[in-house]
Amino acid sequence: MISFFTSHSKLFDQLAINALLALSLSVCLQAGQLALAQAAFMGIAAYIGAILAVSAGLPLLPCIAIGALASTLAAMLLALPVRGLRGVFLAIATIGFGEILRIVANNLKLTGGGEGLSQIPSDANTFVIYGALIIVCIALYLLSRTKFALAIALTREDETAARGVGVDTAGVRFWTLALGGAIAGIAGVLYAHSNFFITPADFGFGRMEQILVACVIGGSTSAIGAVVGSIVLTLLPETIRFLADYREVTNGAILLGVVLFAPQGIAGLWRRAKS
Amino acid sequence: MAAREIMSGLELDGVAVRYGGVTAVRDVALAVEAGSVLGLIGPNGAGKTSLINAVTGIVGIDAGSIRLGGKRIDGIAPHRIARAGIARTYQNIRLFGALDVRTNVSAGAFTQSKVFDERAVRALLARVDLNEVDLDAPAASISYGDQRRLEIARALASNPTVILLDEPAAGMNPVETARLTSIIRTIAASGIGMLLIEHDMTLVRAACDAVVVLNFGEVIARGTPASIAVDPLVIEAYLGADTVAI
Hints:
The complex is a heterodimer of chains A (275) and B (246).
Chain A: H1 2-7, H2 9-30, H3 38-56, H4 60-79, H5 87-107, H6 126-144, H7 147-157, H8 159-164, H9 169-192, H10 205-218, H11 223-239, H12 247-261, H13 265-274
Helix pairs in contact in A: 2-6, 2-9, 2-10, 2-11, 3-4, 3-5, 3-9, 4-9, 6-9, 7-9, 10-11, 10-12, 10-13
Chain B: E1 10-19, E2 22-32, E3 37-41, H1 48-55, E4 63-68, E5 71-72, H2 78-84, E6 86-88, H3 101-108, H4 118-127, H5 144-157, E7 162-166, H6 174-189, E8 193-197, H7 201-207, E9 210-215, E10 218-223, H8 225-229, H9 232-239, H10 241-245
Parallel strand pairs in B: 3-8, 3-9, 6-7, 7-8
Antiparallel strand pairs in B: 1-2, 1-4, 4-5, 9-10
């Protein structure tokens, strides 16, 4: 068991980081926001966390704190111009934001251009990564017991009616995007500090698609579903080795299957089985 | 000059709503007093829903003032207007469809600090004559007439000063409409003011204390339901001048 664990520790780390990313998008989806900038938020924090460690020799924890703070601020700044956008228009604008950042990172000296940054200390071990995941899960659980969680659900179900019962829906949209930025940032720094090197391509549309598919598989309005979806999506290419090279194809096929046959994802199937 | 009396209810004065160059509502004055039901009628496109949207802050007003309990509420955000004590229902029902009946009722009390337990939810549903409904059913799954009454229960949950009802009888059969009439009168008797937009004149006659008639965004008549029904201007607005001439 222990030898299995050590030989697969990389995969375990990946599972938790992907779960964090799925949670960061899930927070936005629960408020009805199809905001697809999580990979960009992850990238911002990953680069800041990497640069601080490589050039300033900062230890991991301050790197996480500063990186996540930066991605949160980026999410808040992005929230302002897109506040009037809904649905697919919001999705396109936020994907555009991610693409701009990716291209900028591709051309900046500070980020190492397309070559990326290397020699990042691999100090984010499995315990740190799972510690971060557990802390985020506890925080989200505590949040789910507050009135803000009801405000999120009402905003998702019907924004006009939510305002009609006194919910500050603009506030809900702003703060869920900020919270998503924070969680994606934590995942980003952990990713950089467990991978030795990062490139702009790590945080492109492919990554974003991966996060979205995980949430859709799990059930787009359920945090637990998002985690389960990300686990399924991370393990699938590992368990079925011959599929590993066709990751994008399998992702697309899974997405299509879920949308057609189980639009509420795993969480929906679970609810149906229970009732 | 006598001091202006501060009303406990809703008061509109000289209200205008424009969409670009189109004037949807012009110089409308009306008052919904606590415990009374004011009907707002008029042909399609007369500006009734625009007026309700202006009161709830969904659209801004271009002239005039809107007051609740003497305090101005025009120009503030919709969720703050809701918190000030105005609740509404919608022409096309707007429940939180995927959420259960219980949550829909307690969502109405979002701004209240008290927790809505099962008894409180049942008590509110009883006020709209919705006693048999399954509290755990998604709101979208209950019958159309029940959804309309659930929306009123949600509005009541906020403990409002005034409720705006936008065509609550739409799609109801005569039996359901008669039931709705007594629900509205009971709510009014509890001291809540109501503005009732409605096409169903049976309901207007039975439920309203007074009626305001809008046409092309302006008030063309006001009075008791009985006097409105025989007002030539109102008949003309609904049926056209030629019909009256014949």
